[in-house]
Amino acid sequence: MINNYFNSGTDMEIDSCDSPDLSEIKKDLDEIKKGINDVNKTILQKNLNENIIHYGIKCSNCLQLNFKGIRYKCFTCPDYNVCDKCEKMLSFFHDKNHFFLRIHDTFLYNCLSNKQ
């Protein structure tokens, strides 16, 4: 029994079992928690985006009025907006050199842009 804990009369443990380091386990658990939180945020944001209606906004491509989802507003053209579905084909029907602003909530965007 003594030989299980000591080697040749020294105070060194012989236990060669590779027991996991608790700090490594905690680090792994923290990474898993972060991953879960990121997934939850993504799901929540997706649900919020799908339920917000952009009242008074018409997609310049498909001409849908009051569409749901993310609104994309051209930063160069004064009144050019596209819906989430049309954004995927944007390079086919709009200047590729124009930047688009991604707007999740038109009401919030209007409140912020009117303050400037």
Describe what this molecule looks like in 3D.
- The protein has 116 residues and is mainly alpha-helical.
- The chain has a domain at 71-114.
- The chain has 5 helices and 3 strands, in the order ααββααβα.
- The protein has helices at residues 2-5, 22-51, 84-87, 90-93, 106-114, and strands spanning 71-74, 81-82, 100-103.
- It has a 3-stranded antiparallel beta sheet.
- The longest helix is centred in the N-terminal third of the chain and has 30 residues, at 22-51.
- The radius of gyration is 28 Å and the shape is elongated.
- It starts with a helix and ends with a helix.
- The model is unreliable at 1-16 (pLDDT under 50).
- One of its GO terms (cellular component) is amphisome.
- Keywords: Metal-binding, Zinc, Zinc-finger.
- It holds the Pfam family ZZ.
- It comes from seawater metagenome.
- One of its GO terms (biological process) is aggrephagy.
Q: In summary, what is this structure?
A:
By secondary structure, this protein is mainly alpha-helical.
How far is the first residue's CA from the last residue's CA?
Answer: 79 Å
Task: Kindly report the average pLDDT value.
Answer: 78
The strand order across the widest sheet is 2-1-3
Shape: elongated
Q: Which stretches are low in confidence, meaning pLDDT under 50 for 5 or more residues running?
A: 1-16
Order of helices and strands: HHEEHHEH
> In terms of structural class, how would the helical and strand content be classed?
mainly alpha
Structure annotation, total helices: 5
GO molecular function, one term: zinc ion binding
GO biological process, one term: endosome organization
Keywords: Metal-binding, Zinc, Zinc-finger
InterPro entries: Autophagy_Rcpt_SigReg (IPR052260), Znf_ZZ (IPR000433), Znf_ZZ_sf (IPR043145)
